[in-house]
Amino acid sequence: MDLQTGMGCRRRAVAPNVGSMTSIPRRPRAVVIGAGFGGLAAAYELTKGGLADVTVLEKAGDIGGVWRENTYPGAACDVPSNLYSYSFARKTDWGRRYAEQPDILGYIHDTADRFGLRGLVRTGVEVTSASYDDGTATWRAETSSGEVFEADLLIPAVGQLSRPALPSIPGLDTFAGPSFHSAQWRHDVDLAGKRVAVLGTGASAIQFVPRIRTTAGHVTVFQRSAPYVVPKLDRAYTRAHHAAFSKFPGFAAAMRAAIWEITELLGLALTKVAPLARLLRALALGNLKRHIKDPVLRAKLTPDYPIGCKRVLFSSEWYPALARDNVSVETAAITEVTPTGVRTGDGRLHEVDIVVYGTGFKATEFLAPMTITGRAGRDLRTEWAQGAHAHLGMAVPGFPNMFLIYGPNTNLGSSSIILMMEQQARYIRQVAEELARGGVARAFEVRRAVHEAYDAEVQARLDSGVWTTCESWYRTSSGRVTTNWPGLVHEYQRRTADLLVADYLEVFPTSVTEEIGA
Question: What terms describe the molecular function in GO for this protein (predicted)?
Answer without folding.
Answer: monooxygenase activity
